[in-house]
Amino acid sequence: MSIEFLQSAEWLRFQEAAGKETVPFAGEDFSANGIVHALPLVGKYLYVPRGPVGKISHYQFLISKLIEKAQEKNMKWMRIEPGTEAALEKIKKMTSRKVMKAPHDMQPREIFRIDITKTEEELLQVMKSKTRYNIRLAEKHGVKVFETREKKYSAAFFDLITVTSGRKGITSHPRSYYEKFFQVLPQEMCRLFVAEYEGKVIAANIVIFYGDTVTYLHGGTADEHRDIMAPYLLQWEQIKAAKKEGYQLYDFGGIKTDVSSGRSWQGITKFKTGFSLQTTPTVFPGSYDIILDAKAYAVYDMLRKFRASFVALKKKFSLDVLFRKSFRRE
Question: What is the 3-class SS of 199-249, one letter each residue?
Answer without folding.
Answer: CEEEEEEEEEEECCEEEEEEEEECCCCHHHCHHHHHHHHHHHHHHHCCCCE
